[in-house]
Design brief:
This is UDP-glucose 6-dehydrogenase. With 471 residues, the chain is α/β, with parallel strands linked by helices. It has 18 helices and 16 strands. The chain has 2 domains: 197 residues, Rossmann fold (3-Layer(aba) Sandwich), CATH 3.40.50; 223 residues, Rossmann fold. Bound molecules: nicotinamide-adenine-dinucleotide.
Amino acid sequence: MVKICCIGAGYVGGPTMAVIALKCPSIEVAVVDISNPRITAWNSDQLPIYEPGLDDVVKQCRGKNLFFSTDVEKHVAEADIVFVSVNTPTKSQGLGAGKAADLTYWESAARMIADVSKSAKIVVEKSTVPVKTAEAIEKILTHNSKGIEFQILSNPEFLAEGTAIPDLFNPDRVLIGGRETPEGLKAVQALKEVYAHWVPEEQIICTNLWSAELSKLAANAFLAQRISSVNAMSALCEATGADVSHVSHAVGKDTRIGPKFLNASVGFGGSCFQKDILNLVYICECNGLPEVANYWKQVIKINDYQKSRFVNRVVSSMFNTVSGKKIGILGFAFKKDTGDTRETPAIDVCRGLLVDRAQLSIYDPQVSQDQIQKDLTMVKFDWEHPVILKPVSPTALKQVTFVWDAYEASKDAHGICILTEWDEFKTLDFQRIYDNMQKPAFVFDGRNVVDPKKLQQIGFIVYSIGKPLDQ
Ligand code: NAD
């Protein structure tokens, strides 16, 4: 029986390994992590991450051929294939601070693999890493391995949070990069055989290591660039009377462009887009390509601009001050169908409104009060300089309440901000909300989920991203 071990039981490691276990009953899969609470949650009915369909997949294989454990060394030692899916955040200090990927977790995983291995292994980069990381990993493994043979593969993950299970069941492509040596090609073939249990062969792309590593950074940069492009257009729409949803529709009808990922919003979030573009920027700078670096930087600058533009719109619409005014915040996760708040635009929007001394009442169906408090008070870095941005002080946190539904969040509020496109916000009883709000009642729709005309008929003053202001 082939044995797989995955180091890192997070948003990527957990779902990808659960799907491999489900689709490959002949393979034993162990997902290991140094975080005891995470592993305990994976072994319970309350999984550590919210992802539609995940519970069902885990229930079908857990205890049969899928195991979650903190015994990292034992499972690594026994495995034929070791996936490494640890976090690769942006470095916060030292050389490359604010841009470069922090590979501390990766390096310690690689050293541990070398230490405990007694048989040959394929080591798979599942985390998103800078191009050429495999070369560094090879050095760490071969210099510490006591003659054991390791083959390094790059197999970046393209799933999107919120749709991870369907994405893993039907991936657009699986990408495998390896060395173009006989041993390297053999390792690529072995990993290909795992995916071939359910992925059609023509969707499995094999390349050299550097192309695979760089493709993941490129894919995220292109996706984020699309959002920043449409968000840049949204500002121009508001200035000219065009409607960004009409523009997106017309532009997306061009088959060379396509309709996906063209929704204007308060900005992109999530743990990957900003971090991976900053990583790309750093790699360009290190390779003497400042013009290319500046090109990608602009994608993040527009995203920052979109978030501050939204805060400024809220404050200026409400007669240039929100001091003491209650604002209902509907949604805190970075997108719907996830409880993940990493880099969510809601953090910057809420921080901006708190600086102007608003009273916030926050509701999200999947994000806990603890998490929101942590996000608002955590230290953040300005990636451009990098300096620490002032976190929300414990006193300012007194301006925040946490509630259990959208009606409670908007009760007695002067305005509401929709910051996540949860489906339930589309079907709210807005007449009831209006009746319970202060007047004039404002809606700031950061995700374009409501019909502004219908809300205006009720009596709301509505701001939707990229829509004419006087409609
Ligand atoms: P995560 O923070 O949710 O999970 C990483 C896990 O690794 C944590 O539970 C941590 O405790 C564990 N870990 C760290 N060092 C360890 C070690 N030495 N031994 C054992 N466990 C260790 O991160 P994630 O969102 O799953 O992302 C993982 C990687 O995948 C990142 O490189 C990310 O860029 C990439 N990625 C993420 C997504 C996504 O949507 N989240 C999508 C594609 C790729």
